[in-house]
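TA notes, week 10

Several of you asked for a full example with nothing omitted. So below is the full record: structure tokens for the whole chain, then the designed sequence directly under it. When grading your own attempts, check the secondary structure regions first.
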């Protein structure tokens, strides 16, 4: 039985002056409310909603609003009301039906008694509001959109909130116009929310810097907001004068982030930059926030001759001469007083990326200067952080830890078409299910669109036809995405094709790299300018990182197809098996040997014992 009520009023003094008399709960009960007009909406929460709305009317800050909606529920407590407020803010920000006027003052994603039951009620409230035209799209449609996934309108986890608060205090404590030798570094595994924190921080800085006088008035503020104390006149004056940029090295992710900034009040698409744009800019930045900073380049042969020329020209412009040791990180430091770097060294996927040794040195310095923050909580993969460690261990031929991943599908397929069919099923059910692969096949279809790129078991597929926002392109379900189209993105289900660039050496009893089956030219190119030659062991690390990224994209599940027979046999015990001729997973026994119906049996997921890596 529905326990909530949604009541509507005109947002006018005469209409709301009777609120306290209309229902005693308006003056002494946790409630959530919205203020809106045809274009914009604001969400609030209060124990005394009648007083709060009168304060909004008196302040004049929301004069353009026309309607009030109040959500009441006899079962609500303060925690539930705050959670509903955060829920509505998050989904309104992702729906894009309205311009969301809320500032990011910080509601933390905290637990409370019976939260799961309240969340069921929230979904009912969502559907009621959708029927009234407040939302345009369904919950799954919003959840699968990049605008939602990358939106700054999020309830942060406690550790994310601590990182944002510490960074904000750090920045506000610095002397204006004076740089700092040590960048702030935020480190985290795939799925820990680095990009969300980075974008949230950008929105928070912009919100403080553009806050109106009424928004600095604590009498109409929510005392439970984590960052409300930073909304002061002094901080507004300080931050409003700052030039702040958001740097994203990868082209595809950068385009998606720019689209989010375009739809977010107080952020602008022009804030989102690539490293070359930073180096060439005539502007000096007070703060540069760099997402996926492990993808910044050292001096190496760039994808085009024009970029090689630009690299030289930027070095000459910034340092007076072109020296080989200058990197894009040096550009970032030279062009800004303060740098905030979000990174995971284990996601470096090309030799042109700044090397691990540089990041390790930077991390040591940041830690010693108390400018290092680490994110641990797994926000993407439902299997939790243990799955990330599990994947990285088996790719490094190490014995992994626990293999118990409740409610997470982790399956090995022996027929590519069967895996593709499963991906199609999952996409129809949940959306955002895609095939991805290592760069173990030439991109023949780039020149001849009639040619398949990947042919396995007589089944042919093509690489991604676009490099920008491939996941959401109209043909993506029929294609295979590369590392360069999916790094930084979420999928509900990922079907990962592990190509023959990785093999299992039965004599050494470990995974090795096969250069002859690796077709990313920039992924194996030597660097004569720096005197660097990359042997197979060097490149193995990058390819392992690539597959580590691909295998950690799936929120609800990961499927794999392995090309090398010996590697397939080696990895079989770590996955539920989908046998040839059977599109459903076999939870009993799994093939331990190579491809084919005649493969002998080995322990399956339900009863397998984890094997120690043989020396």
């Amino acid at each position: 039985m529905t326990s909530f009520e949604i009541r509507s009023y005109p947002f006018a003094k005469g209409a709301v002056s009777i609120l306290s008399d209309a229902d005693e709960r308006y003056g002494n009960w946790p409630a959530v409310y919205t203020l809106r007009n045809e274009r914009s909406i604001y969400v609030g929460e209060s124990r005394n909603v009648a007083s709060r709305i009168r304060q909004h009317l008196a302040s004049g800050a929301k004069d353009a609003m026309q309607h009030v909606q109040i959500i009441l529920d006899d079962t609500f407590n303060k925690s539930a009301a705050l959670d509903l407020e955060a829920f509505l803010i998050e989904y309104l920000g992702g729906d894009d039906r309205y311009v969301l006027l809320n500032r990011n003052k910080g509601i933390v994603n905290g637990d409370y008694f019976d939260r799961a039951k309240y969340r069921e009620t929230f979904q009912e409230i969502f559907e009621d509001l959708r029927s009234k035209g407040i939302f345009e799209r369904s919950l799954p449609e919003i959840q699968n959109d990049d605008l939602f996934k990358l939106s700054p309108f999020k309830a942060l986890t406690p550790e994310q909130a601590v990182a944002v608060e510490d960074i904000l205090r750090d920045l506000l404590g610095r002397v204006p116009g004076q740089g700092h030798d040590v960048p702030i570094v935020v480190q985290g595994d795939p799925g820990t929310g680095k990009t969300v924190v980075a974008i949230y921080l950008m929105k928070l800085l912009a919100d403080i810097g553009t806050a109106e006088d009424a928004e600095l008035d604590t009498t109409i503020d929510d005392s439970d907001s984590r960052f409300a104390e930073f909304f002061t006149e002094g901080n507004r004056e300080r931050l409003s004068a700052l030039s702040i940029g958001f740097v994203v090295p990868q082209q595809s992710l950068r385009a998606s982030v720019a689209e989010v900034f375009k739809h977010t009040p107080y952020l602008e698409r022009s804030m989102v930059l690539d490293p070359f744009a930073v180096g060439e800019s005539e502007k000096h930045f007070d703060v540069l926030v760099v997402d996926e900073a492990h993808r910044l380049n050292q001096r190496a042969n760039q994808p085009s001759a024009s970029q090689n020329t630009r690299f030289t020209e930027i070095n000459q412009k910034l340092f007076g001469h072109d020296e080989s040791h200058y990197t894009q990180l040096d550009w970032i430091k030279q062009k800004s007083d303060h740098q905030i770097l979000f990174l995971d060294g284990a996601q470096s996927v090309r030799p042109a990326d700044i090397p691990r040794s540089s990041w390790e040195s930077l991390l040591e310095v940041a830690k010693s200067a108390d400018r290092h923050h680490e994110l641990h909580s797994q926000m993407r993969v439902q299997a939790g952080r243990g799955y990330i460690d599990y994947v990285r261990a088996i790719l490094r031929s190490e014995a992994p830890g626990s293999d118990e991943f409740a409610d997470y599908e982790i399956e090995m397929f022996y027929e590519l078409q069967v895996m593709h069919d499963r991906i199609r099923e999952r996409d129809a059910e949940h959306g955002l299910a895609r095939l991805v692969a290592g760069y173990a096949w030439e991109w023949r279809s780039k020149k001849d669109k009639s040619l398949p790129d990947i042919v396995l078991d007589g089944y042919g597929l093509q690489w991604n036809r676009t490099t920008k926002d491939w996941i959401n392109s109209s043909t993506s379900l029929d294609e295979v995405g590369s590392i360069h189209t999916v790094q930084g993105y979420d999928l509900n289900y990922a079907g990962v094709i592990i190509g023959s660039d990785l093999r299992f050496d039965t004599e050494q009893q470990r995974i090795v790299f096969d250069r002859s089956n690796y077709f990313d030219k920039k992924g194996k190119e030597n660097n004569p300018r720096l005197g660097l030659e990359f042997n197979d062991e060097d490149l193995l690390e990058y390819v392992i990182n690539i597959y580590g990224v691909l295998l950690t994209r799936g929120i609800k599940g990961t499927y794999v197809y392995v090309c090398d027979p010996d590697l397939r046999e080696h990895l079989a015990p770590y996955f539920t098996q989908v046998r040839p001729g059977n599109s459903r997973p076999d939870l009993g026994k799994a093939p331990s040997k190579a491809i084919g119906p005649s493969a002998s049996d080995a322990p399956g997921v339900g009863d397998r014992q984890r094997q120690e890596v043989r020396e």
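The chain has 20 helices and 23 strands. Use that as a sanity check on your answer.
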